[in-house]
């Protein structure tokens, strides 16, 4: 099937459409229903009647946007009517929810008169926290937005105007910087004079461009002062009329620095591109066919051509989804009265700045594993980059506060944490740990320091203030890789190059530790050249506080050196691998998933205690369940006795200060009704959040099924039970995994220092 047939099937699959309404409060009992509706609902109604602002406290208004259209200018389909526009408006709602966790009602108005639309939307102000106008034709859209902004006290935003303006404005800021031109000097030519073109031209002026340097062309040609005086163009086009001779788009492009296409495909030739100034900037944003193709524009010149389009199959896609969800998120969260020019500029500048930062591996993978690094082929972030929310929404919120549009002030640090929580529990949990790490950063040695991911992670932990990284490897290789990545390494990142470092003291230490395990002094000198052994000895000797390794080795071979050199903690005989799995409303720690193949009851008990310690590093009070395929003796054999005996030993241990029980089946451990009903005698009165599996096979299978089928996000594996903080990554882990484990290692080191 083609894209049309696939889309039709996608939309008609049960339930039809793309949106539904879900409840956010429990509705399981008669009391729940009496609180949700009659008689309990009267109380919030009366509170709001006394103070209208309390609608933000007691209803969903503060997170609800109305997407409003009359269907008069839908995508490239034209005036197809209100009813036919509904799939687009539903789609807009999907994007609001997916990227910024904003709820949407789509409103399709069967009205053409601007006055009727203004009255209809204004009448719905009590319902919404903001209004997104969509697919309303020009010039009526200008009047409608302007009147609604004047008459309503909530944000009103016509995305067709301002979305393209903000995203392309961010791209223009970076493109001008790359080619070494000042935005105030740019000679800018527009093809198209509709809503998005006029709004973009206005916005570029807000960014520093000069009106007298902007030439706008419509289907007739250059919009001149003579045409304006003759009444040949509407009042909105007149704003950009120039006192120049009549001419075509081709005439306008001669010696121009920037082309902005918001018109129709195929109207720009290679000859026209060749006539432009050196290092031209070309934004050909007609969809689906740009004014000139990416390949033709690039091939037309030998110098730098920075090209952006509206298509996802070319670099630098100008996609409005980079703007409206995050702009509204920031505006809603400060209860803004409007989305003003300062807020739009803040959004563009935040996007431009984000494009200069290192790109997460997950984003690179989502776009085909092609390198994404600031430069001509990457001047604006990708829509699937989750950091857009954390950069743009706070910037918009701050601008709203500074410009007087906000009715509520936010603490920026706390606000970013709240935004992270909206994208998933794992981000919320890691923020707890990373904030602890920042309070007292420690030295973390990265054994595989030549690996690109390790180098990028080192730069990020420095930027975030999490740790002081030490990279082991060839200095020239590390510095060359950092240079290729555009990372500036300074004294904050230490490099330990075995070729230029006196390794003899470390070899002596290794020999002393392993001489009664058959390691000769000569063998110690050879082993210490291995990054894993060198890092392990550095940690053992106190020259580093923690260690990360594993990207380039199988887990057992990466674990062996730290086990041999660092060893287990005084209160532990065994190490174990733990994964933190986060669901929408729940977290669980799964152990052991990486180390102990067939643990006995003593190992199970020790793994439980060590995992409970780990849970507390995440500010989670542990409730542990030792899992099996039986419940509390329903099956009695050697396999079920191990977790049963381990649980019994833990309950009798005076040093165990958390609830623990077992053996029990997995559903018993996590379902409150079973614990408080069938097994009310259990020491667990709430579902377990520490799940200890009976063996490595079960643990590994269990966490992977929960992750893949249960939709959980995973943090780990985190190694517990070691004498010093050591973590072994999985091959293929991403930079964010390295950064997260560095944070966990730092917090571990902090706690050990405090306990000493």
UniProtKB/TrEMBL annotation:
The keyword Chaperone does not apply. Coiled coil: none annotated. Residues 16-149 form the Malic enzyme N-terminal domain. Its EC number is 1.1.1.40. It is an enzyme of class 1 (oxidoreductase). Residues 1-26 are annotated as: Disordered. GO terms for molecular function: malate dehydrogenase (decarboxylating) (NADP+) activity; metal ion binding. Residues 161-401 form the Malic enzyme NAD-binding domain. SUPFAM superfamilies: Aminoacid dehydrogenase-like, N-terminal domain, Isocitrate/Isopropylmalate dehydrogenase-like, NAD(P)-binding Rossmann-fold domains. Signal peptide: none annotated. Its cofactor is Mn(2+); Mg(2+). Keywords: Metal-binding, Multifunctional enzyme, Oxidoreductase. Residues 8-17 have a biased composition (Basic and acidic residues). The keyword Metal-binding applies. In the N-terminal section; belongs to the malic enzymes family. This is NADP-dependent malic enzyme.
